[in-house]
Design a protein that fits this description.
Layout: H1 3-21, E1 24-30, E2 38-44, E3 47-53, H2 55-62, H3 67-76
Antiparallel strand pairs: 1-2, 2-3
Helix pairs in contact: 1-3
Length: 80
């Protein structure tokens, strides 16, 4: 899987988080833990939020082939 395809999947998960969590995400830090994890930062109202996706979640996301699989993977992450 190419990096651009993985980033597209991550962007889709970010959209799910924003929609279902009512969060405005204004930053994405790739490889924030030097192991392949991702951190989203944003806000709900006046409160700052940070949501992390660890290396294993990123790898599971990378193995998804369809949007339905990506959504199921997102739901397994249990953000909301």
């Amino acid at each position: 899987m190419s990096i651009s395809q993985l980033h597209t999947k991550i962007d889709l998960v970010k959209a799910f988080i924003q929609f279902e969590g009512n969060i405005s995400i204004n930053g994405t830090c790739y490889n924030f833990d030097k192991n392949g994890g991702i951190e989203f930062s944003g806000y709900t109202g006046s409160h700052t939020r940070k949501i992390t996706m660890d290396k294993y979640q990123v790898e599971a996301l990378d193995n998804c082939k369809t949007i339905k699989e990506i959504y199921e993977c997102y739901k397994e992450m249990s953000y909301f």
